[in-house]
Amino acid sequence: MDRLGGFEPAPRVAVGVSGGGDSVALALLLHRWAAGQGGDVLALTVDHGLRPESGEEAIAVGQSMAALGVPHRILRWTGDKPAGGVQAAARTARHRLLAEACAEEGILHLALAHHRDDQAETVLLRLARGSGIDGLAGMAAIRAEGAVRILRPLLGLPHERLLATCAAAGAVWVEDPSNQNPRYARARLRAARSLLEAEGLDAQRLAETARRAGRARAALETATTLLLAEAAALYPEGWIRLDPAPLLAAPAEIALRALTRCLAVIGGGGHPARDEAVERLHAELAAGLEHGRTLAGCRVLRRRGAILIAREPEAAAEQRDALPGERIRWDRRFAVMPSARRESPVTVARLGAAGWDVLKASRPDMAGLDLHPAVRESLPGLWSEGRLEAVPTLGFDANGHIPMDAATFSPVLPLGRQAFQVVSCDDGII
């Protein structure tokens, strides 16, 4: 934990606990560490509701945590579940629920129990999918995700050692049956573990591969951040202006990474751009980009000698209801909070061309606003029964009141994020 660093006095740390030996060991170890710092730990268990017994299992995890003296909360994934891609959807829901719980509790750090064997499996899976340097770097020990810092303190430790830690403390854990289900790629890799180890692909060797790839990734990301500091300007309406000269003068790998990061920030990161598509965009920019492009939920075009990257309005299709005073994240880009003085809920949806026409009719002075149509039409508007109530980003309120609603551009993926973290320790690599 000292090597991960960056903790406030008397730190509060949340830990994701599934009930397996790895996460129980992490909760146990973090509880002891936090107590020594004058802080405390909150265990969080997500009940995905995918199996009839999942609710009882989550309660059992709470009982196990109570025996260790660790406070515990159950977070439930409610609503309809997808017919396909259940694992990916469950992972997305889990991350969202954990982050929301941390925000509610005012906790800045979320610890996850991924260990050395998980890291090795990640490298193998990404190798099988043809990943480059970024994928082979595996999971980072430290990663900022919105207002929460994701920590993985156990990446240097094997699974067996964590189970031994639980046994020594008399802690109770359960094994997830899906860990042995051959439907899942990770379970198939575990079944082939002895064969892989006989060929030299043991967990330690794969973790070393991740360390070396991580070192290269960190260097590339640092160079990318330096390029963006020179070439990019980020605006509160949710768009980026790029100076083409430094972008096109940079090594191709760094320029491609800069473009990918810009697309992820403005597009919300929901549909990552494929490498070949970014390469085509880079070539078109070098040739002058005569016509605009749509990529990764973004519009990319030349404007006044610069490159403009804006959200594609049609892609900003999310509609979310929000109560007065409730803070929500919309389109993975904006933090929106309707005024607590409102008398009823509103629906947060894109302004669109029709909404822009309504705004201009009500406020003719807005007609001269120097924003590209893609920018203004993808802004969050507050709607009620089909009527535009407000556009907080532009300071517009349909009733002529002093605007009290708030909408802040706050993308999940920051433009100037820190480089991939490689944390060394004496007996392994985190």
TrEMBL record:
> NCBIfam families annotated for this entry?
lysidine_TilS_N (TIGR02432)
- Functional description taken from the UniProt entry: Ligates lysine onto the cytidine present at position 34 of the AUA codon-specific tRNA(Ile) that contains the anticodon CAU, in an ATP-dependent manner. Cytidine is converted to lysidine, thus changing the amino acid specificity of the tRNA from methionine to isoleucine.
What is the catalytic activity of this protein? cytidine(34) in tRNA(Ile2) + L-lysine + ATP = lysidine(34) in tRNA(Ile2) + AMP + diphosphate + H(+)
Q: Which organism is it from?
A: Azospirillum doebereinerae
The name this protein goes by in its record: tRNA(Ile)-lysidine synthase
Domain notes for this protein: The N-terminal region contains the highly conserved SGGXDS motif, predicted to be a P-loop motif involved in ATP binding.
Q: Where is the tRNA(Ile)-lysidine/2-thiocytidine synthase N-terminal domain?
A: 13-191
- The EC number(s) given in the record are 6.3.4.19
**Family matches, as InterPro entries:** Rossmann-like_a/b/a_fold, TilS/TtcA_N, tRNA_Ile_lys_synt, tRNA_Ile_lys_synt_N
Q: Which Pfam families match?
A: ATP_bind_3
Where is the protein localized?
Cytoplasm
Q: Which Gene3D superfamilies match?
A: HUPs (3.40.50.620)
* A GO BP annotation: tRNA modification
GO CC annotation, single: cytoplasm
Return one GO MF term. tRNA(Ile)-lysidine synthase activity
Q: Kindly list the positions annotated as binding ATP.
A: 18-23
Q: What is its main location?
A: cytoplasm
Q: What protein family is recorded?
A: Belongs to the tRNA(Ile)-lysidine synthase family.
Q: Which keywords belong to this entry?
A: ATP-binding, Cytoplasm, Ligase, Nucleotide-binding, tRNA processing
